[in-house]
Amino acid sequence: MEQQLVELAYKAADDKRAEDIVVLDMKGVSLIADYFLICHGNSDKQVQAIARELKDAAEEKGYTVKRLEGFDQARWILVDLGDVVAHVFHKEERGYYNLERLWGDASFVEVKQGENQ
Asked: Which of 35, 39, 42, 98 could make an S-S bridge to 18, C-beta 3.0–4.6 Å?
């Protein structure tokens, strides 16, 4: 089920042309979530569109969106899907926060895009 949620979130971000999408396996590294999805958009509108797509896609499949933070500012939107937390950055903010380096103990997860997705 976790893997399905990771794939759903990845596809939702990709559908809105999110850039540099990475998934980190946070198990044993953080108690916050099992996976972090990190991506960025190039404008406020794109960042909001990515976050909205993540939220809508998850709800459509019956997942609960526990929290959505930062939507109005569109610099760093956090979409908490429980086992998966998505971090949608504005391009300018992503390098500054550099979550991939901050959580350097986490391993990267290869997300396979299904043919039917």
From this structure: 39
Would you say domain 2-108 falls under CATH 3.30.460.10?
yes
Tokens of 52: 């909205």
Mean pLDDT of 11-31: 95
How would residue 106 be classed by pLDDT, with cut points 50, 70 and 90?
confident
Amino acid at 14: D
Domain definitions of the chain by residue range: 2-108
> How buried is 84 (Cβ within 10 angstroms: 0-12 exposed, 13-18 middle, 19+ buried)?
buried
Q: What is the pLDDT of residues 22-59, one digit of tens each?
A: 999 999 898 889 999 999 999 999 999 999 999 999 99
Neighbouring CB atoms inside 10 A of 89's CB total: 26
Tokens standing for residue 8: 């759903």
Give CA–CA dist 13/113, Å, rounded. 12
**Cβ 109 vs Cβ 42: under 8 Å:** no
14 pairs with which residues across the strands? Answer: none
In degrees and rounded to multiples of 5, residue 86 shows phi and psi of -100, 135
| Strand, helix or coil for residue 86 | strand
